[in-house]
Specification:
50% of the residues are buried. The protein has 440 residues and is of the alpha/beta class. It is 32% helix and 20% strand.
C-alpha cells in the first residue's frame, strides 16, 4: 500500500458475514472498499458450525423472543430482538436466492434443528459448516460486483476523525506500508477478541482492534465484559485456537459426562449455565476437561450430519458415537462491543459497527445459540440501508494524518491489548480474574 490517500464511498473493515452482506446491500453506484487482516477465508464466520435461526411462522414469535431474552438474562434490548426475529424470514429468503443451501429432510422440507435454550426446532443448517456455506456464497457474489474491491492482509490501525465525525481509517499492509482511506461512511466489522485469549475458538488475528480504537477516540462501548465462553471445544494440551464442537451436537442428543462417566447437567441449558456446570465438575475432580459422547447416532449418521466435527474427532482418535471425547470450555463470542442503535450507527457520526463488533443489545448478557449469523445479517443490511438513504452532506475538511507518527506494530498491538483488557477488568474484575488474567 502506497503512503497516500485512497478515496471511496464506503470502507468496510472485515470480510466476514457482516462485512460481506453490508457490502452487497450497498447500491451499485457507491464504491465499496473492503479490507481484511488476513486472507478472505480466514474469518470467524467461516468457522460457524451450528446454523442460523429463523422465525418459521408467526406462532413461534413469542417463544423465539422469550428464548432469546431468557438466554440473555433479560438484559437484551427488546426492540433489537424484535427487529432481528421479524427480519429473519426475509434474510433467509435472500440467502436462498443468493444460492445458499440449507439441509432438507426426507420430505424435501427444511431440516430444522434445535440447540441449547431453544424450545423449538428453528435452526437452519448446512451440515456442520453453516457459516462456511453462507460466507463462501456471499464472497463469491461480492467478488463479481464491480463496485466492491477487496484488499487483503491489511490492518486498520487508527480512525481518522475530528469533532466526533469519522472521515476514514489509517491502515498498514503486510509489508509495513501505511496509508489512509478516506470515505463518506466507515463500517467496522472486525469481529470479537478471541485472539487475546490463549484458548479460543476464534482465529488468532481477531484481536478487537475496533474496540481499542473506540476507546482511544471516545466512541461509546457497551458491556465489554459480556464475553461468552463456549462449553464444548475439543480438548488439547497445547494452547491456541480450539476446535469447536457445536451445540447442535448436543441438540441432536449428545450428553456430557464427568471423570466417573456420570451425566451431570442438562446439556440444552444456555451456554453460560452449561459452562459453569462443567467448570464445577472439573474443580470437583481436579481435571481440565470433561467428556462428550453421541450415543444415539451411528458412526454413519454422525458422519453425514456432522462431517467436519466427526472427521476432526476421528483425527484425534475418537469416534464421537462410541468414545468419550474430551472437551473443555474456551472463549467463543463477544456480546458486548461498540454500542450501536438498531441501524448499526455508533456514537460517532458516519461510523457504523456490525456483526460481533457491534453491541446493539440483541444478545444481552449471553447469546442464544445460532443467533450470531442472523444478527450479523439483519443489522448489516440495516446499516447498509441507512448509509444508502442518508443524504446529509459531509464536511470535506479532512483532518491531517501524520503517517510517520505511528509506533511499530508490536508496540501498537500491546497498546491495543492493554486498552481492551483494562476495560474488561474495569467492568468486571471477577470475570477478568477467572478467564482473562492468565489468558491475555
Amino acid at each position: 500500500m502506497k503512503r497516500d490517500f485512497i478515496k471511496t464511498d464506503v470502507v468496510i473493515v472485515g470480510s466476514g458475514v457482516a462485512g460481506l452482506f453490508a457490502a452487497l446491500c450497498i447500491p451499485n453506484h457507491k464504491e465499496v472498499l473492503v479490507i481484511t487482516k488476513e486472507k478472505l477465508d480466514e474469518c470467524d464466520s467461516f468457522l460457524a458450525q451450528g446454523g442460523v435461526c429463523v422465525l418459521k411462522d408467526i406462532s413461534d414469535f413469542s417463544s423465539f423472543f422469550e428464548d432469546t431474552m431468557k438466554a440473555g438474562h433479560f438484559e437484551n434490548d427488546p426492540e433489537a430482538v424484535r427487529v432481528m426475529i421479524e427480519s429473519s424470514p426475509e434474510i433467509i429468503q435472500t440467502l436462498v436466492d443468493l444460492g445458499v443451501e440449507f439441509d432438507t429432510n426426507v420430505n424435501g422440507g427444511y431440516d430444522y434443528t434445535r440447540e441449547g435454550a431453544h424450545r423449538q426446532n428453528r435452526i437452519l443448517h448446512h451440515k456442520d459448516e453453516t457459516g462456511k456455506e453462507i460466507t463462501e456464497n456471499l464472497l463469491a457474489i461480492a467478488m463479481t460486483r464491480k463496485n466492491i474491491t477487496f484488499v487483503t492482509r491489511t490492518t486498520m490501525i487508527d480512525l481518522i476523525e475530528k469533532d466526533n465525525l469519522c472521515y476514514g481509517i489509517v491502515c498498514e499492509d503486510e509489508y509495513g506500508e501505511m496509508g489512509a482511506i478516506i470515505a463518506r461512511d466507515i463500517i467496522l466489522a472486525t469481529g470479537g477478541i478471541g485472539g487475546l485469549f490463549k484458548n479460543s475458538t476464534n482465529f488468532p488475528h481477531i484481536t478487537g482492534d475496533a474496540f481499542a480504537l473506540s476507546l482511544k477516540h471516545g466512541v461509546e462501548l457497551k458491556d465489554m465484559n459480556y464475553i461468552q465462553i463456549h462449553p464444548t471445544t475439543l480438548y488439547s494440551k497445547s494452547e491456541g485456537r480450539r476446535f469447536l464442537i457445536s451445540e447442535s451436537v448436543r441438540g441432536e442428543g449428545a450428553i456430557l459426562l464427568n471423570e466417573n462417566g456420570e451425566r451431570f447437567t442438562d446439556e440444552l441449558q444456555p451456554r453460560d449455565v452449561v459452562t459453569n456446570a462443567i467448570v464445577e465438575e472439573m474443580k470437583k475432580f481436579g481435571t481440565d476437561h470433561i467428556y462428550l459422547t453421541l450415543p444415539n447416532m451411528t458412526s454413519e449418521e454422525a458422519k453425514k450430519r456432522f462431517p467436519n466435527i466427526f472427521e476432526e474427532c476421528m483425527a484425534e482418535g475418537y469416534d464421537i458415537t462410541k468414545d468419550k471425547v474430551p472437551v473443555t470450555p474456551a472463549q467463543h463470542y463477544m456480546m458486548g462491543g461498540v454500542k450501536t442503535d438498531i441501524n448499526g450507527a455508533t456514537s460517532m457520526r458516519h461510523l457504523y459497527a456490525v456483526g460481533e463488533t457491534a453491541c446493539n443489545g440483541v444478545h444481552g448478557k449471553n447469546r442464544l445459540a445460532s443467533n450470531s449469523l442472523l444478527e450479523s445479517l439483519v443489522f448489516a443490511k440495516r446499516a447498509a440501508d441507512l448509509i444508502s438513504s442518508d443524504k446529509e452532506k459531509k464536511d470535506g475538511n479532512i483532518p491531517p494524518v501524520d503517517l510517520d507518527s505511528y509506533p511499530e506494530k508490536s508496540v501498537r498491538e500491546k497498546e491495543f491489548r492493554d486498552l481492551i483488557m483494562n476495560e474488561i477488568k474495569r467492568k468486571d474484575e471477577a470475570f477478568y480474574a477467572k478467564w482473562c488474567n492468565d489468558e491475555s
